[in-house]
Amino acid sequence: MPDVHLPPLGDTIDEARVTTWLKQVGDAVAFDEPLVSVETDKVETEIPSPLAGVLTAQLVREGETVDIGTVLAIVGDGEAVAEPVPAPSVTEYGGADAPTSFVGVADVATFPAHGGVATIAPRDNRVRTPLVRRLLAEHGLDPVAITGSGADGRITRDDVLAAARRIEPAATPAPAPVSVPVASPAVVDPPSTDPNGPDPIEDPHWQPFNRVRKVTGQRMLLSARTIPQVTTVMRVNYEQVYRARQEHGAAFRERTGQSLTYLPFVSMAAIRAIEEFPHLNASVVGSGLRVHPAVHLGIAVDLDFQGLMVPVVRDAQDLRIEALATRTADLANRARERRLGHDDLSGSTFTITNPGGFGTLAGTPLVNPPEVAILCVEGIAEEPVVVTTFDGSKSIAIHHIGHLSLSWDHRAIDGAYAAAFLARIRREIETRDWSAVL
Length: 438
Hints:
The longest helix is centred in the middle third of the chain and has 18 residues, at 239-256. The chain has helices at residues 105-108, 130-139, 157-166, 211-226, 239-256, 263-276, 321-336, 415-431, 434-437, and strands spanning 3-5, 15-21, 28-29, 34-39, 44-48, 53-58, 65-67, 71-76, 109-110, 119-120, 229-237, 282-285, 288-291, 297-299, 301-302, 308-309, 312-313, 350-353, 373-388, 394-409. The protein has 438 residues and is an alpha+beta fold. It has three domains: 3-76, CATH 2.40.50.100; 103-173, no CATH class; 215-437, Chloramphenicol acetyltransferase-like domain (Chloramphenicol Acetyltransferase), CATH 3.30.559.10. A six-stranded mixed β-sheet has the order 11-20-19-18-14-17. Strands 1-8-6-3 form a four-stranded antiparallel β-sheet, with no helix packed on it.
């Protein structure tokens, strides 16, 4: 009978919470019919049935959080089973229960935190996922000493991390050689794995991060720690774009129901520039650079100051201005309403962030791993500029001026390449006949 697994839900998501069972044991289900709703810190989605048949077992309760790859249910072509059956062997996602005949390192040994010899221990059936086994091994914890909060006493990731925070073993001094008496070194407390220290849960002024904020912070910390980043800023004259918006904005709103903003123009200019500077649409892999053939454009979306999501406009190089604008707006709206699917949140190759609505002058955005660059659209405002007429005379005019900030990975490119890329975007914005494009 086919198993229904919790599929990958995004590049940085390793677990999800089952919120609602849409079908009950014994119900007939059609192929691709939603069986269960799940949520993560970034997305709410429904998991469909892989075939037509009968839901014979629900293996996870509502409200339970499980790892990617966990078997959620079983769909068969006959009668429903009376009792839930245990999850089967390891799946392609690596998250289901291992069969009892499979023995892994984390299944047979408890690893001491500070030296000593690992002791052989029987498999604990409450440890059901590779993630939990890995965390137990990393922190040197014995699952027997941990009370599981999951279904049937299952030990979850949070249970392991909570136990690790409670235990702070002291380091053992090194023994002195017998032949040469020496003083034992002082006992030093091991460094904390969390540089911010334990959560001050009794502090009335302390507020825990929500899940979106946690994941955003983890991604940004990864970016800051692993990518040697530089930011280049360039001034841009948006007057051509402004005039096109004035000329076509009303008709665009009538056709689409949306405002014609500056963002799709900048997006198209960046896509055209990538054609000439493909190393900006790439990822550092090993000791080299993987240059992506298609531009999957990530759009950073603020979630009412609670964190960020980066939904993806796929194959953006094939889209015209109107399609770029409508797809970007649709993704942003669904992100704020938590209605994105896992395909909407994975696979971006180049990201644009747009804080300019707040009037920013220049920022230093952090690159979105594993990409090599992120483009920041800053505030646009009227400014006096010097313009040259056809006869060569100069005058002062009021134009719409803003800045573009490009943060980039110095492993992948150098400053000249980044500056030339920005200059190409600027030339596209300033000189293209945007009215003809619309």
